[in-house]
């Protein structure tokens, strides 16, 4: 005799968790962080031409790829945070890479502006990632006003 099975997407805990993340992502703070992530990514993608990475073609390509990735992550967070919350650590990884990439990708970097640009955008990406993770943690936990369900100890 076959037993009926349900799909994982219909599991009550998963549905409830997604609803809490969607509610957390709808706050003005979350929307602002998502927008800043997109803008940071777009700036990073075009920064080689704004700042002038003369002679650093590999670093320019690195910034273009990382910038587009960061912008796409920001768009994913803005449109479906309840499904993409698990990737909130990725902007921090991109930010850490941006901080070291002038030396790793370009070798000897003799221009201050390329280093300063990548360090500032990398630090911003790390901060945005930490803030997005904090919002997700608040959305993922029950508050005293939320009531019901299991509570973390």
From TrEMBL:
What is the protein name given in its UniProt record?
A: SPW repeat protein
The UniProt entry, under InterPro entries, shows: SPW (IPR005530)
Annotated Pfam families: SPW (PF03779)
Key word Membrane present: yes
What are the record keywords, sorted? Membrane, Transmembrane, Transmembrane helix
TM annotation in the entry: 33-53, 59-81, 88-106, 118-135
Query: What organism is recorded for this protein?
Result: Streptomyces glaucosporus
**All copies of domain SPW repeat-containing integral membrane, residue ranges:** 34-130
């Amino acid at each position: 005799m076959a037993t009926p099975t349900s799909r994982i997407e219909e599991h009550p805990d998963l549905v409830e968790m997604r609803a809490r993340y969607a509610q957390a992502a709808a706050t003005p703070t979350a929307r602002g962080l998502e927008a800043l992530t997109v803008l940071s990514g777009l700036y990073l993608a075009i920064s080689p031409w704004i700042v002038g990475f003369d002679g650093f073609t590999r670093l320019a390509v690195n910034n273009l790829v990382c910038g587009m990735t960061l912008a796409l992550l920001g768009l994913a967070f803005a449109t479906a945070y309840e499904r993409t919350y698990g990737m909130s650590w990725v902007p921090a990884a991109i930010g850490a890479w941006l901080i070291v990439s002038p030396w790793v990708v370009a070798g000897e970097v003799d221009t201050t502006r390329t280093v300063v640009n990548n360090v500032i955008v990398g630090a911003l990406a790390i901060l945005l990632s930490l803030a997005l993770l904090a919002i997700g943690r608040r959305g993922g936990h029950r508050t005293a006003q939320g009531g019901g369900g299991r509570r973390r100890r």
